[in-house]
Every structure is written in C-alpha cells, then in structure tokens.
Structure prediction request, 292 residues.
Amino acid sequence: MERTEAELIAAVLKGDAASFEPLVQKYSPRVFATARRYARRESEVEDIAQEVWLKAFSKLQSFRSEAPFEHWLMRMTVRTCYDFLRGHQRNRESSFSELSEPETDWLERFVADPGSAAEDADAAKLLVGRLLEKLSPPARLVITLLEIEDRSVKEIAELTGWSVALVKVRAFRARGEMRKILAKMARDKYL
Amino acid sequence: MNLADLQTKLIAAARADVPGDQVPYAFEKRVTVLLAARVAPDNLALWVRGLWRAAVSCVAVTLLFGAWAVLNPTTSSTTGDLSQNFESTLLASVDQSDQAQ
Prediction:
C-alpha cells in the first residue's frame, strides 16, 4: 500500500532516510522547472535541485503540516535559487554588442515593425535570457515571479520571505533596472 | 525604438518559454545516497544506548556476585558472631598488656 505524504514525513523524522525518496521523486519535476528559470547550465540546475533537497531534509523538523509540503518546498526552492543568483553574478558585466546574429535580426525586425517580431521566436528567448542575466539578483527574482510567472505580490512575499512592502519596492526598482538595461542595449546597438 | 514595447515583447517571450520539468535519471537515488552519508549521529540516542549497555552489565555483575555469595557461603575460621570478634580484636592490645604485667 502506498504511504501518504504525512506518513513519509513522519518516518523521515523518526530517522528513516529512505522514506524521503518518494518525496524527492514526486516533487523533483517542480524543483527542476523552477531552477531552470534562474540557471542556464544543466549542471547548475542539478546543483540547485540537490541543494534544495539537502536543505529540505535537514530542515524537515521545521515543516508544519498545516500547509502542504509542496508550498514549503517551493519556498525553499525559490530561496535557494535566490542564493544561487547572488553567488553567480559573473554574467552581468557582458555587453550587448556581443549579441548573436539571430538576436540582432530579431531586434532589427522589431525596430522596423514591432508586430513582425514574434515573441515565441528562439532569438527573442535568447535575448530575454540575456536581459534577465544582467539584472541584479533581487530584480531578476521579482521580475521572474511577478511578470513571467504572473504571481501576486502576496504570493511573492510568502515565497521569498520578504514583506509585501519590500516586494513592491523591489518590483518598482526592478522595472526601472530593466528599462535602464534596455536603454543601454539600444544605445550600444543603434548609436 | 520603443523601449516600453520592447520590454512587453521580451516579457511575453519569457512567458512563452516555459522551462522543462525533466529530472535526470536516478536523481532521487543520488539524493538518498547523499542523505545517508550526511545523516548526523543522534547524540541522545548514543547516550541512551551506552547507558542501557552499562545498566545491563551492572545487573549481570550483581547477579553473578549474588549467585556466588549464595552458592559459596564463606567458611569463617573463627567462631562467634561479628560483635564478639570485633571486641576481641579491639581489646587485643589491652589483653596483651594485662598478660605482660
């Protein structure tokens, strides 16, 4: 008979580490999908996921069963991704003059006729990836959660551990930061 | 270039790019192995186990000595009870000095 989530967690807390495996199996797809929003290389994604599960195991005693395990785990995942962003800021210094040919083509098409540049084009995805990499860690996190994943301010506050007011302030600053980067890109490319 | 439009377009591009949720093969096994290696020893459990072992050996020693005492009663060379023996030992020097006079 398959054990429930609560039974598995209780068994892990009693010292049965093997009972953690079904939880890892069930929730890893969500952890990986979240990590892929913030890390590009697959090795980095795997490191984040591994870190999330090691943290989840060591902090399982702090899990209160009133809320679903998934919510608790996703909070830990988002915070681990944020730590990863803070530790990997190397790409923020690169210039937009290094844009690939498809990215340049897509931008030129956008300049000529904004409607003709498809947003599902690979070049647009590459370009937005480049843009997100240039944002500061809090700006990238808040833009990803608020604009890309379409979460509410309250949800973001719960996921990140920031206050609602801080999320609003960081969202405001993040939009400003994004506009500044786009303006710089336009200057680098077209002036 | 309209930057606001570009920003909207790029955000839409990011929304359209939903990341995959595939997990590497046997990832959960790898995590379990890592966890097994990292499980910290429970100090309280170690203490309790040690104390139980000590208690069992103490009981065993007590039983052995008890059995030995019951099965092999001491053969006292002196007669009389303990109080008499104690008194004669204590007064032995007085008796010796009396005999010398």
